Amino acid sequence: MHLFTKLNYTKQTAFLSLILFLVSIQALPCATQAAMFAVRISPPNFELKGKPGDVLREVIIIENADMAPGIYQVRTADWELDKQGGVVIHPPDKPLAASSCRPWTRIERRTFKLLPKRVKRYRFEVHIPGDVRDGESRFAVVISPAPETIDAMKFGSFDVPVAGAIAVIVYVKVGNAKPELEFKGAIKKKRDGKTVLAIRLHNRGNAHARPFGSVIVKDADRKKVELLSVPFPILPGQTTDTNLAIDREISEIQNIEELKFPLHIKGLIEWDGGTYKVDTILE
Fold this sequence. Notes:
By secondary structure, the chain is mainly beta. The protein has two domains: 11-174, Immunoglobulins (Immunoglobulin-like, Sandwich); 181-282, Immunoglobulin-like (Sandwich). 0% of the residues lie in helices and 52% in strands. It contains no helices and 22 strands.
C-alpha cells in the first residue's frame, strides 16, 4: 500500500507560526466534561522552495501532551489573512482558492492514534507540477481530534460539540518567486483606543514578504523615539499596514500620544531580497 494518501479535489480556478483556533460556545452555565485537545506541534510553519517537477518532503512533530490516548484527524485546507492579521482557515466544502496548491499535496494518513506523552513524526509531500509558472502557493495542514473522541456539552436535549484544531501554515515558492514591496506612506490610526503608527506597504511581487526593521521618529519638539516594525506576512497583491511598536527598553515614552505632530519618520525597512529607506513627514 502506498504510504501517502493522494488528496483528490475538483479542478477550480488556479496560491508563521502556530495558529490555534477554538469553536467556543457561550451560554448559561452548565456542567461539562468535554475532552481536552492537548497537543504540541512544531514547527508552526514551513517556507518551502522548489522548481517545477520537484518533490518536497517535510515532517511535522506532533506530541500528545494529554494524560489520555488521542485519536486525531488530518486534512489540508486553504487559508487567508483577515484585516486584523488573523489566519482564517477555509472549511472543507469551500472551493479551492486561487492561491492553493492542495492538489500537489500528499499526506501520510488521514487519522492516527497517539499514546500519552508520545511523539509522532507526521510526513507530508508537495509534488510541484512540471509546467507550473514561477510564483508562490500556500496551504495548511490542519490537525484536530477525530469526531469519535469529541465530547459534547449538554444543552437540554441538544449536544453541542466543542472541538479544537491546530493549523500548520505552509508556503511554497516555485522558481524565482520573490516579493516586491512598494511604500505607500506612514499613517496613524486608533487601536484599542490608543494612537499607533504604521507603515503602509503594497506587495506587487509574486511571493509573500515579512518586513522588519526600525525607524527613528522626531516630533515637533525634537523629542526622539525608536519604533520597531512588527513582523507580519504581506501576501502577493496585498496592501498591509505594518505596525510600529515602541522599543520600551530604550524609549523615554510609553505611548504615541506623548509625541507632538508633525512627526519626521526616518529609518530602514527590510525584507527577503529588498530594502526601503523611509524618510517621510506625518502630519
